[in-house]
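To: structure subgroup
Subject: Chain for Friday's discussion

All,

I'm putting the inputs and outputs inline so they're searchable in the archive.
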Amino acid sequence: MFTTKEIWEAGRAALGLAPTATTSSAAAAPAVAPAADNAPSVFDPSKFQFQACVYRIHFKNGNSGEYDGAALSTAFPFDVSEIESIEPSEDVGQDL
């Protein structure tokens, strides 16, 4: 029976990668706190006031779609880091 670490190291060796640091040196290294995400480009669905209308959601990958605001207000099924903009569908294209 092999440990997870032994399997991991064997896989790295098979790929020609350097072995990882030992667990004792990894434990001695200071932990890095995750950076606070203060970027204004990240959408926060809990702060958005969805109305009972249809919204056009534009994603950073170029796709977009129309979704019901009442459903979005109860469950937001998208990765918030991938949202570029959200606007009511009747407003889409009005600023041209």
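Points worth raising on Friday:
The chain has a mean pLDDT of 75.
The first helix runs from residue 4 to 14.

D.
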